[in-house]
Amino acid sequence: MRSRLPFVYRILAIGGLLFFSFNIQAQEDTPQVAREHIVFSTIHGDLVFALYPEIAPLHVEQLLKLTRLGVFDSAQVMRVIPGFIVHFSDSFRRLKPLTREQSDAVQPIKAEFTNKIRHTKGRLTMARYDDKPDSATSSFSILLGNAPHLDGAYTIFGHLESGGSVIDKILSIPLKGESPSQRIIINRAYVIDDIEGYFNTHPRDPADNMGFVKTTQVAEEPQDPKKATLKQHQINHLIAILLGAIIMVSMLGVLLQKHIGQNRLISLLLVNVLISGFGLFIIMTPQTATTPWLGFVLFMAIFGLFRLMSRFEKSA
Fold it and tell me: What is the pTM of this model?
C-alpha cells in the first residue's frame, strides 16, 4: 500500500496541474474588449469587429484612427481562402485614392505578438510582409478556422463579434484563384461606442457557425478563336497602313528626285528602310525567344543599316 501512495499522489498532482493550465487557457481566450467597435458595412450586411486594447494597443489605436478618417471606405475583400481567411485589402488598394491626411495616417505598426491568445476561428489577424514583422499597416484577415502556425508570428488584435452570415455570403461567391469573382466593397467603415445600442437596432449575427459554405471556382473561359483572329487582323491592318505610308513617301521622293536632290532622296529611303526594320524587329521580337537565330539575323540587319547610313554620310 505504501509503494502505491507516491504514484497516486503523482497522478493527482499532474491532474491538478492540467486542470490549472486549462483554466489559465480559458482565461487567456477571453481578453478584454474595447468599448469601441469597428463596423464594416457591405452590400451583404455588417461586419462588427471587437478589439483587444490590452493585447495589441498600437494596432487598435491605429485601426480606430484609420476608420474614423475613412481610410477603410472603398476598401475591398482581396483574398478568400476557404477554411483559412477572408482577407481585406490594404488602404492603397481601395477604389478611391487616399487624401493626403489619410495617406499620412497609414504608418507601419510595431508587431505585438503574444502567447496569451491563439489564432482561432473568428479572430482578426494583421497582415504583414513575411520578412518584416513590423510592416503591418491596415490590411487584416478574419480567420475561418484555427491557424496555430500563425501563433507568435502575426498580431491578433480582435475578433468578429457579428456578421457570420455575411461571411457565408462572401464565401458563396465563386472564386478566381483566391480572388472573389465579384467585387466585395466596404461601402462604409465607422466606429461605434455603444455596442448594445447598436444591437438594439441590428440583430446579432453570431460568427460561430460561419465558414461551412462550399466555395466554388470560376472555370477559365476558353479563348474565343474569333476574338483572337480579330485582334491579329487589327495588328495586321496597322502594319499594312504603316508599310503603305512608307511606300507612298518613298515613291513621292523618287518622283520629286529632281527637286530634292539625289543625296536627300537616298537619305529619305534609308530612313524609311530603318523605320521598317525597327517595326519588323518589334513585331518579330516575341518569336526570337524560341528562335535565337532569328534574333541574330534581325540584329545584324539593323546593325547593317546603321553602318550603311554612316558610310553614306561620310561619302556625302
Answer: 0.64
